[in-house]
Recover the amino acids of this structure.
């Protein structure tokens, strides 16, 4: 598995440096979009506006959303490209399972995407004056978000294998993910509080806002629920992907578009 990951990492790096303008353009566009929203909000609120913690929370939600979008779209778009170029069947003839191949590919791509998202975060912090905390404890809630994102990515990859063209579904999912990651579900009360904890990636996003914005220590119970939720959604995505591979093989539609 390590050898597979290293091979996919090399492949992702070659593709990344082959199109440097596209990579740089993605960083600039994503940053400019947020800054345009920030300037517009300042204009509407007036010159005396002070966003305080709300700005920091919005920055966290936006950057998390950017990272999750990279992850979620990765597998589905990868499958569509492989099908269009006619190499999908060759990839699945590998000694490794389809789930292992695309998981290794996704992890390799994540290492490069994470560097891009970090650059986006640093530029946004410089432009807006936002101040965030970066304690080591943020790794665990971030891991729960990434696990949930990979689970969602494999679910969309399953749909891409069966239905082929899912561009509109990907667009719709982006708005849904923005709601999940930007909404402060950690402030919900009563029964809605437990609903917020059970939604994919929301518990981890709330913990990141607590740690990085409010400088609050990790709540052990909420962290446990966030990790369990991330693992559950990841497992669901893997099961769905393995099932969709079997169905696509049985129907003979792996190489179709």
């Amino acid at each position: 598995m390590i050898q597979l990951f290293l091979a996919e990492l090399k492949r992702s790096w070659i593709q990344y440096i082959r199109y440097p303008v596209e990579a740089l353009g993605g960083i600039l566009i994503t940053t400019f979009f947020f800054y345009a929203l920030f300037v517009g909000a300042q204009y509407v609120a007036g010159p005396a506006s002070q966003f305080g913690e709300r700005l920091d929370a919005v920055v966290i939600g936006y950057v998390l959303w950017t990272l999750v979008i990279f992850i979620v779209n990765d597998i589905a778009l990868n499958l569509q490209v492989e099908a269009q170029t006619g190499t999908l069947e060759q990839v699945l003839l590998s000694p490794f399972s389809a789930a292992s191949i695309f998981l290794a590919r996704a992890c390799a791509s994540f290492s490069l995407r994470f560097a891009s998202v970090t650059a986006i975060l640093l530029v946004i912090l410089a432009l807006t004056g936002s101040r965030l905390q970066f304690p080591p404890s943020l790794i665990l809630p971030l891991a729960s978000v990434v696990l949930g994102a990979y689970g969602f990515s494999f679910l969309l990859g399953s749909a891409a294998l069966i239905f082929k063209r899912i561009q509109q579904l990907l667009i719709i999912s982006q708005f849904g993910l923005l709601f999940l990651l930007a909404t402060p579900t950690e402030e919900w009360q009563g029964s809605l509080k437990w609903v917020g904890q059970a939604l994919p990636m929301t518990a981890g996003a709330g913990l990141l806002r607590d740690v990085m914005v409010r400088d609050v220590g990790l709540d052990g119970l909420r962290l446990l629920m966030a990790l369990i939720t991330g693992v559950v959604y990841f497992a669901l995505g893997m099961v769905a992907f393995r099932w969709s591979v079997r169905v696509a093989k049985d129907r003979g539609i792996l190489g179709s578009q």
